[in-house]
Amino acid sequence: MSGREPGTLGEWLSAGGPEGDVVMSTRIRLARNVADYPFLGRIDERRKAALEHSLREKLGACLDAPVYHDLEAATPVDRQCLVEGHVISRDLAQGRGARGVAVGPGGVLSVMVNEEDHLRVQVLRAGLAPDEAWAEILAADRRLEGAIDFAFSPELGYLTACPTNVGTGMRVSVMLHLPALVWTKQVDKVLHAVSKINLAVRGFYGEGTQALGDFYQISNQATLGRTEEDTLRAVADYVPHIVAFERNWRRKLLAEHRAGIEDRIWRAYGMLERARLLTSEEAMEYLSALRVGVDLGLIGGVTLAAVNELFILTQPAHLQKLAGRELDTPARDEHRAAFVRGKLARLN
Amino acid sequence: MSGREPGTLGEWLSAGGPEGDVVMSTRIRLARNVADYPFLGRIDERRKAALEHSLREKLGACLDAPVYHDLEAATPVDRQCLVEGHVISRDLAQGRGARGVAVGPGGVLSVMVNEEDHLRVQVLRAGLAPDEAWAEILAADRRLEGAIDFAFSPELGYLTACPTNVGTGMRVSVMLHLPALVWTKQVDKVLHAVSKINLAVRGFYGEGTQALGDFYQISNQATLGRTEEDTLRAVADYVPHIVAFERNWRRKLLAEHRAGIEDRIWRAYGMLERARLLTSEEAMEYLSALRVGVDLGLIGGVTLAAVNELFILTQPAHLQKLAGRELDTPARDEHRAAFVRGKLARLN
User: Model ipTM?
Assistant: First the structure.
């Protein structure tokens, strides 16, 4: 159960994925708890450690070739790498005590141990792929169910630490890249409509994080009193409307303001190619514009998958892993600029 | 007396010139009036036209292969090109009635007819070259004096339309590029010191224009009661102090803030290489940074002379001459970006 680097970028992102021009990724997670143990808010350290130990073994046995990262033992940079790769939550990284994550091949499937719930099962897919993700997580859930006795009520469904997850324990999230709607100041209108149909909008790194670089995450709110299929369809059927809206505006902007749009995109490219210091925020902003440029066919030689990777690889912990040492903010800005510059030079 | 294009860039700028890292150009002009004619403020149109006609002929006869531009007949774009090339003043371009300019080979020598005075003789040289410029303008002045009876008083010296020019009628101006002093906010201190020793500070296009892109023009104020040599020395001997100050700060910035300075310069280069729309102000700002980058050896393949040319060739009228038609502001921004981009691509 070891061998791969923590935070190694999963295949899920390297693939472009369906509707990859607007949809960065689809994520499904299931919250699960073990029947014989108290919820984590009321557990003592000894039993929490015993739970982690037991789950670690069971995950090793019933998942396909997982790598387990012991997050209590991991360095802060390794933990942060997993956050940046969307493999674990910030809460799990910043938590205390016995906890970990089992990651399947390519980073598609991961199971967090002792996050808010005993288990958080997650599948990540590039692009808009709710049905594939659902099939994969269902298969994993069934294998886990064969080995673990989950806390379940026939009336309520799966029992979870937080009441908002009771029922299916399921969250479907789609990460959208909406630069044209941001640039034309229409994104608030869209997000308002989203919230009206009981979907939530979150930032680039999930709950409580900010939308960054024109990225918005749409996910379901309700988990109680509706089936998994309903939840899936509620998100999956709504997203194509936003995708079409974003696409239309990209084309419209290009048709009606070609010089301005080309200028914006090529300036971003020039900054990425030439800057010697790049903050995290700047990298997000310029990569966002570059992503549109690739989609609109303005910039050749660069693929969406390559840009997607850069979003992750230019994050602070990934830069420190690449450098092989801790870097303060100015040093990170220098490494980030050098990394992006080198990458773009190799692509051309 | 024709053949060369109006506003063609003079050789004076294409050469790098002494102290070319900080000194863009040296200019000397002499104000002269013809004894038999009233000053231009009190002349009627008929006599003004007769004066212009007579001077045009005399300039043709006593200068070496001049091209005469009739500015009453010239198009606004052609007039503006001559302003942008520093060949004529804005006042002459925007004036009315019979007026013109005779331009010698390479644009080094030019003689304006019916500007504020009947004649304004000018020599332009790249870099800090006061002695060469003085030798050239003296030779030209002597040839003109052999053909024209100048208004001269044994007590006061040359008589001029404006009392501030009476005496020598001479102005020595040095165009300085002071980015390090601007970036470190020390330029005001320097300019204050300059004004204390009775030198004037002017903008990129002379009297009444703004300092632009970190360029400052230093020139003498007094023309009365001092010799030409004194005037020349007052400017020429002071400039090297500013040059040394600017140079030290460029080195100091590079030594102490290398990443920040490289970042600033390479970002400017990235904008010039990649932008699809460039305003005049942006071009000045980025070219200014590029000029420092070339001087500090950070950017190879580009010469100071090439950057100097770009300052002029990216001005509005030059862009319109290149395009062969009138361009509104957005179209100029597009042409400017395309021109700079093409130029830098050819240099690399």
Answer: 0.86
